[in-house]
Amino acid sequence: MKFEKFDERRYDHEKGWRINPDADAGAPERKFPYVDNGTGFIDPSRYYDPAFAQAEWDRLWTRTWLIAGRASDVSTKGDYFTFDVGTQSILVVRDGDGPEDINAYYNVCHHRGNRLVMSEFGHAENFTCMFHSWAWNIDGSLRNIQDRETFRDEVVCDEPGLAPVHSGLWGGFVFINMAEQPSQSLTDFLGPLPDQLAPFHFEDMVIVKDTQTWWPANWKTALDAFLESYHVHSVHPEILGFYDDYYQQWDLFENGMSRMLMEFGTVSPREDDQQSVNDGLKMMLEDAGMDPEGFKGTAAEVRKAIQDFKVKAYGKDGKWFDGLVENQATDDWAYFIFPNVTLNIHPEGFLFQRFRPDPRDPEGFVYDVQVMLHPVEDAKPPVYMGVEDGTDCSGRTRPERNHIKRGEPGLGFVLEQDSQLVPIVQQGLHSKGFKGMRFSEQEQRLRHFHAELDRYLNGEK
Ligand code: FES
Ligand SMILES: [Fe+2]
Hints:
By secondary structure, this protein is of the alpha+beta class. It has two domains: about 270 residues, Naphthalene 1,2-dioxygenase Alpha Subunit, Chain A, domain 1; about 110 residues, 3-layer Sandwich (Rieske Iron-sulfur Protein), CATH 2.102.10.10. Helix content is about 20%, strand content about 25%. It is built from eleven helices and 18 strands. It has an eight-stranded mixed sheet. The chain has a seven-stranded antiparallel sheet with strand order 1-10-9-4-3-2-5, with no helix packed on it. A three-stranded antiparallel sheet has the order 6-7-8, with no helix packed on it. Strand 15 and strand 16 form a beta hairpin. The model has no long low-confidence stretch (mean pLDDT about 95). FE2/S2 (inorganic) cluster (FES) binds next to loops.
């Protein structure tokens, strides 16, 4: 191992590491003050106890803001999508042309409780229940009660519209909140994230990959694994040639949110060979549009060379790079949106991962993996975005959602490695010999997440 980057090897948790020690107080990559969430062990029962899962349902899922989907999936009046979480299905529908004309409702018929809409996406003039044909307009108002004359007036005189759910928009995402009255506005909930992420222009990105699967593990067992890079050297050693898994910047924000800034185009300090421009670095150079064989610099010069090249190339047509800083050209800016979404952000686009609980089994979760990109006609997205060759990245066609079983191809090799690991961790959590999780400071984002989860469960939130 070569730990040469900093003079002092000893880690100071209050100071942390920073990807740019020269960043000034207003720089996007500035280091935020440490948040002390203590040193307690995390009780493993929260990963399998049905009572804990029920408490999460009652106090977290039904009371916080959740990303339901993309506004681009409801771009035209009458477009809709459904979002299922736990026992609930939510219908998100556009009923006008303005940005505020996206609304959310419980996806249920007021007659006998049938699920109203069955498909994940679609376009409708109105919504008609398949059981007895009650119907609603796309603005949620009641349209028709079949054979109304056979109902006594008291039963239907309230003319029930679809039951509304709070909704909001940011970054091209549609959020929902099932609370009667959310305790925070969406803006307050997101805190500093919109400002920090504005230069990436999420709202202009298009979905190019959409995969859904189910893994036998608690949703948090999987989420935890994506909030840290501590496991990369043992589970994903293939990427250490072009990825610094050790000297990372961890920043903790309000409401459980956090980020992890990770250098790409740098050899991991764990690697013996720090000099050669290895295959991983060559891949990074090629992805950026450079000639890897013609590159004459050292391994340590690759990251900066790619940054210079990309800033110049993207700067040419004035898009993608307005407001971004150099290290964003190469690095992975990994954000966590509490409670269940991670984003791995690059200037070209981002990887979106969402973890949803299985309402029938605390040891199962629904795993969504999507890739959003700035539309490109012919350029190939970087390999690390996990987009298959030949994918249409122009934004003209929205890819179908690919439902796969665990172990089937479709996630890309890094996530497939995680798919092998996470269910085994889930089994280990039951051991009578395990006394609870002991987090390193590399795992401070996990501690921060669990501390916020506890605030929901104990009634502080
Ligand atoms: S349950 Fe929907 S019309 Fe009867
Ligand atoms: Fe992993």
